[in-house]
Amino acid sequence: MRNREALDAVIKAYDVRGVVGQDIDEAFVRDVGAAFASLLRGEGETTVAIGHDMRPSSPALADAFAEGVTSQGLDVIQLGLCATDQLYFAAGTFNCAGAMFTASHNPAQYNGIKLCRKGATPVGEATGLAEIKDKMVEGIAPADVQPGSISHRDILGDYATFLNELVDLKSSRPLVVAVDAANGMGGHTVPAVFDALPFDVRPLYFELDGTFPNHEANPLDPKNLVDLQKFVVEQGADIGLAFDGDADRCFVVDEKGDPVSPSAICALVAERYLDKFPGSTIIHNLITSKTVPELVTEHGGTPVRTRVGHSFIKSQMAEHSAVFGGEHSAHYYFQEFWNADSGMLAALHVLAALGQTDQSLSELMAQYSRYFASGEINSTVSDQAASQQAILDEMADEIESVDRLDGVTVQLAGTDAWFNVRASNTEPLLRLNVEAKTQNEVDDIVNKVLGIIRA
Predict the structure, then answer these.
(1) Beta carbons within 8 Å of 5's beta carbon, 6+ residues apart
(2) CA–CA distance, 339 with 121 (Å, rounded to integer)
(3) Domain that residue 67 falls in
């Protein structure tokens, strides 16, 4: 039996994550594996695929988790080193549950587990994590069953072939592609996926090293893009790609070394899918630029707006039979990839669009960047609800409308400008995002809202 308060700190809304040796160890993940397998056994499932990233702690944790799973009579397919979207590929291809050991973009001392059911269906707090937690608090009874078996499978080649069949790049013009793998799993998957493509790949930090000796594998933080921005210009590259630690997200840098907004990437990929599947539905979270729903509507598609977070996006993808979904954080979801997210597949779509035009990437992306944005700005706040209400009260005369789908989203009167303030799921933070027609408007709104939050 385990303490619920301690579990609450590690088993979060979307995954399991904590500091190795402090929050997470082999005994802990063995219990998580047993609880997950017990849940699955009750649903008639028989198999769990397990993958892990390059963090020093990952192999041993994956093995311990496998012990927990097999103790409940379920079989394990050990994938070894893989990216998170590679694990989703396995869960979809083998039609089995999956567990990925990674802490994504977090620093080296962290690790965690992303869980899914067969077909890469996500397991979040409302869809299994709370039940796993309950089982661990109550104590997991030994199963009166024959222990499951463990087999090993290398799926990297199959994964690469599958992605290359989804996006035709054979007719692309030659491109110089700079890639920063940040010593993460992109260094494992990019060579396999790009091997047969007509691109000159210039690698940066491809050595797998979970201590991240060059910079954190978190391209959402601008400081971690600096090396790639410089490298793109030095190499005369047509495009730069930056992957996070488990390579499920991909950020893009243009030929000038300037970052491309993930919202703009979302709009470009959405347009490609609407050309292929006219009239389709596209999912976007409420932080993405207004460019995304505008462009989807202009191209005859149906935009559906949802909360931030992969579990919400994936459920909406399934509910609306959407062909594509995107988030401001560079998570991109694909119906033809079991509604799961794949940074690699998004990258291939951007390369296909660039390879079919004579334009530079900055010229190509200009049409998808209609507004200016602040990016996400975090403030430490003890009473998030009170801060949100103070914003609404003090700015009441300027507000046209408010919705509460996720935090508060405020449309300002007489302008295209809007902002969203929402609470973090895991920390005492308020997250602010602002979008407007000009950078000056963005700056003014940011200063005004932060002045209230941080007063």
Answers:
(1) none
(2) 8
(3) 4-154
DSSP single-letter state for residue 178: E
- Do 424 and 332 share a domain, yes or no? no
Instruction: Please provide the average confidence, as pLDDT, over all residues in the chain.
Output: 96
Residue 104 annotated among the catalytic residues of the structure: yes
Cβ atoms of 181 and 105 closer than 8 Å: no
Residues 196 and 307 reside in one and the same domain = yes
Residue with tokens 């979307």: 14
| Amino acid identity, position 389 | Q
Which token pair is 324? 């594509």
426: pLDDT strictly greater than 70: no
179 & 320 share domain? yes
Q: Give the domain-ending residue among 100, 122, 154.
A: 154
Q: How far out from the chain centre does Cα 115 lie?
A: 14
Q: Which residues contact 355 (CB under 8 A, 6 or more apart)?
A: 169, 171, 172, 173, 175, 198
Residue 427 has pLDDT above 80, yes or no: no
Q: How far is CA 395 from the centre of its chain?
A: 33
Which residues lie closer than 8 Å to 21 by C-beta, 6 or more apart?
none
Chain centroid to Cα 2, Å, comes to 30
Please identify which of the residues 57, 58, 71, 104 carries the catalytic annotation: 104
Residues 6 or more apart in contact with residue 35 via CB below 8 angstroms: 68, 132, 133, 135, 136, 140
- Tens of pLDDT, residue by residue over 68-107, are 999 999 999 999 999 999 999 999 999 999 999 999 989 9
DSSP string, 41-75: HHTT--EEEEEE-S-TTHHHHHHHHHHHHHHTT-E
Q: Token digits for 54? A: 């390059």
**Residue length, the chain?**
455
* Nearest CA-CA partner of 50 in 150, 144, 126: 150
The span from the CA of 399 to the CA of 409, in Å, is 10
Domain of 435, CATH number, reads 3.30.310.50
Count of domains for the chain = 3
Alpha carbon distance 235, 202 (integer Å): 8
Whole-angstrom distance, CA of residue 322 vs CA of residue 305: 12
Residue pair 2/35 in contact by the 8 Å Cβ criterion? no
